[in-house]
Structure formats: structure tokens, C-alpha cells
Sequence to fold (413 residues):
Amino acid sequence: MDNAHRVRPEPGQFDRMLAAAGVDPALVRSRTELSDATFNTVHRVRLHEDAPYPRGLIVKTAPDPAAPTLSHERGIMRTEGMYYAAAAGRAPVPEVVYADFSRELIGTDFLVLTELPGTNWHTAHGTLADAERARLRRELGTLVAEVHQVTGPAFGYPQSWPTTLAAPMVTAPHVTAPNVTAPMVTAPAPTASAPTASTGSPVPAPPAPTASPMPSAPPRGPAVAGPGWRATFLAMVDTVLADAEEFGAPLPEPAGRIREAVHAVAAPLDAVTTPVLVHFDLWDGNILVDRTTAAPGTPTAPGTPTAPGTPRIGGLIDGERAFWGDPLAELVSLALGGGIEGDEAFLAGYRAAGGQVVFDEGTRLRLTLYRLYLWLIMLAEAAPRGFAGPERAARDAWVDGLLRAELAALRMA
Fold:
């Protein structure tokens, strides 16, 4: 499905975008728009062999900023850059080569990223033997636990924080954006343990040598720098329900009833006291599987084979939905449409790297809330993006069934 509000740069504009990133357009060998993207416009750029970035670049262009969108999606390209900066050194994520949030060059935000090796797991699924799949899930669990050691200054979506808690800096050679005074958040050196839902490693704030501070987005949406995770998450749910009503999303029951059901069982969220970095969109399409030898310095899970032809996790991509919150929320998209409890390989890797999860009553209820939130987003986002036709109808029907099941589970809690 295609976002009706895409911005597709003209060839001359694209050349200026690359030039701004310090890449000579004359070095470009090919430019290909990737069809898998459903929100941003994404191009793969391949350069001549003697050029920098031998693997290539990914250029992501945000939709028209004046177009209708969900509240939490305003400015989310800032969040994507933040996620990569915060997760760097813990998991294989793209490097931000250039970030432009000034909207002066092409009228919208864009990122220039290094391309990572591999094919998304959704596409590669049929090529993997059972033993390979199990080993990759264990490796993935280890990497996710490493990322969950990164903690932040507040809960929620960083792109809508006030300037006093503005999003972490993107450590790219160039970030073009209005300057604000804001703390930097960066990851501590990797250790052997990851935070639980209520603890986490402190995040130091060293200076960044070559980046301008990330700006905050125009204030709209939930008060995500609230006093705690319960208040923040409930505000996130309330906001997406308001968006769903505004855009006429086909909710299975009135938004007010859904809101009441969520608020009535929210007490277990108080167990979460430390804001942890959560990708929240780690379905198979955003996990790359690579069969080449890892490049020097590429973060990999301990014991990962690197012989050519042996599959490994090549990258975690599309971090735009990220927020600071409960690490349990990560487990929803990792088992999209199902449950994570039966994924023994993933959980073994996660726990071996220090990730702690016990599937008791409170944990299961929190997972139900996070699944419900994701289904609400998926129903609400279709209309402002202009999704239509049989494909949207089938998608809505699938999400509707999942949402009804979570609502029933909430009311039995």
C-alpha cells in the first residue's frame, strides 16, 4: 500500500540532497526507489567502487509535513535518527550520514543513512532452515537485550518532548535543524546485563564532536514527558483513539469504551520506572538477514558464526516508531499477530544477555495493552495515508480480529 502523501524528490533535488550530505552526485551509479516502504519514500543509492560508502546509501524522505497524519507521527524522522544514534555499538543499525530537518532544501525532512547488508527476514523466511531460524532468533534476542540497556531521561515519543527534554543528538557529520538547548542521551558501553522493567543502566552524557542538537517537534499529541509510564502510556492510547475518531477509523466499538477498558486495568504499568529504548516495530520486515561475513566492528551477538553463507542478523532498520518505555512492549512486534512465550530461541538469547522477563499475570496484562495499542495504530493510520481498496479491507479485517481479541482479554483480567 502506498502513502498518498509521499514526497518523491526530482532528480535535481536528489542531487542537492546528496551534495548536502557530502556525496558527489557524479559518483552515483544507480538510484532505486524501494517499494516496501509504506510511510516515507526510500531510495537505495549505489556508488562507484572508488567512492565512499562502498555498500551504498539509503535516502529516506518524509511525507509532506502539511499532510494529515497521526499525532505521534509528526516529526518521527527525528526519532529514527535518535534510535540509530542510541543503539549504535549494541546492534547493527544504520549510521546517520546526514540529517536535514530544516525543510529548506525539499520542503520536508530527510535522512541519508548507510546501507546495511542482507534481505529482510520476511522475504528471506523461506530460504532459512529450521536450525538457522532458531539460531537467528537467539541472536536477535541477544541484540534486543543489548539495546534495552539504553535508558533515557523521560517516557514516551521523543519527537514531541519539550525542548528541555529534546530528543538525543544524532551523531552524524551534519545535522541541519534549528538549534535548541537539550541534553544528549547516549548508550553506555555494552555490559553483560540488561534492565528489567523497573531498572536500567544510567546513560552518560559525553559531548558529541560533530552534531547539532536535535530539535523538538511542534507540540501536538500526548504529554509524553509525564510523571511516569502509566500516565504516559495512557496518554498515548488516548491520543491514538482521538486520531482514530478524527479520521473515521473502523474501530470495533466506540473509542470511549476502549479508553475505559484500558484505563481500568492500567495499574500494572506502575511497575515500569525506567524509560528504556524500545524500537516497537521489529517485525520480520525490519530485521535484515545477511549471509556474508560481518564487516569489522559490526555489532554481533557473542558466538555468531561469520563464515560466508552462514546467516546472521545484518541489521535492525526503520526505527521511526521508537519510544522510551517498557522493554516488554518490544515483544509485541517481535511476535506480530501471535505471542512471544513460545519463542524459546529468542527468549533464550534475550535472557542470556541479561534481559529479564517472567510471564506472570502482570506481564501478560501489559503485553495485552501493548498489542492493543499497536492494533489501534494500524487501524488509525490507514485513512490519513490514503490506503484503499481490497488490500486495505483485508488488512483492516485482520487487525479488527486481533483488536477484538485483546479487548476481550482486557475485560477478563
Notes: Residues 11-228+272-357 form one domain. The chain has one domain: 11-228+272-357. The first helix runs from residue 11 to 20.
